[in-house]
Amino acid sequence: MSVAAAARVIASSPRRGSRPRPRARCVASMSGETSASQPRPWAVSLARVFEWEDILEVAGDDAETRAVSDDDDDDAPTTSGSNGPERGCKDEFIVIDGANVAWGLAQKLKSKFHTKSRVPMSSAVLMALDHEPWRRRGIRTHAFIPREYVIGYVNSVCDGGGLATVNAECVEYLGKGMWCNRRLMDEVDKGRLTLVSRAGDDGRGSRKADDLVILQRAKEADAWICSNDKFRDHRRERNIGFAGGKALKEFARLRRIDHNFLIAPGLDDETLRAMTNASNWSPRCGANFFDAYDGPSPRLVGSHSELDPFPPHAAPPDLLPITFEPIPTDAMKTARAHFLARRLWEVPRVRA
């Protein structure tokens, strides 16, 4: 269902003896019935993304319908090939803004541990791709990320950040100043992650290239977008499938979901320090951990342990548990409240 079509559909459960009134901004029917080739209504799909069981029950959408079975969950593909979401796909598809989630976790770690630098995190991308509630319901995911986040200079590659912070556990040195994030490259090989070049056809490059690809592919598949970026600075873009800035704004308003990361939920700082001391964990951060490194002398670079005895960006998950959580936008929260109060789906006008 396209956004334009969704905006015209009116969903209501009329009171006895009353006649349903047209509501210009209602966006989807609550009927959960879909054919084998038709996507679920916007409202039902939204409820599945956030596991709103009360709404799914009213919609008649079986929680197990088209969901991945427990036996096959580990082997279930999250995409249908290296190109990611397909045009007209019938099931929910979530396009992940890889750069946005990688920097989102980096900022959370910097704020919590007061580190001197931010390091984009590959683990953030993996957590979004493998979000268990989505996999359990059979919701497919695919991530797009700038190429230099996977293969590039040390300051741009995920889990790099700099010569003193690069994590030897998941980054490989290729030579001549180039580095590769092995974790993300594995996802590229699996077809779950697509690299987007920012070089540009004219050679001048564009830092917004990955955002434009995300918007274009999400519109083609009528997919959800997991990103905290509201895409306000792309509303004048052409040739990405939108009729104009208003159409892009409307799509982002209806299809973009926020995200958050919970750092060590339930553990206070004292407990974390005790766990760190008991684990005898020794971080491998810095260019001096790479035998093939041929850049500036490692003794001039140093290691991250000299700057911070506990580099949180390199901490293993058993030592520093982190949880990814999707968050509905304000418009989606209000739409849910409208339904629970009046059994009407209406997305209010809010500033996107």
TrEMBL record:
Pfam families given in the database record: RNase_Zc3h12a (PF11977)
Source superkingdom: Eukaryota
Biased composition (Low complexity): 1-15
Domain RNase NYN: 92-238
Region (Disordered): 1-40, 61-89
Gene3D superfamilies on file: 3.40.50.11980
Descriptive protein name: Zc3h12a-like ribonuclease NYN domain-domain-containing protein
Organism name: Ostreococcus tauri
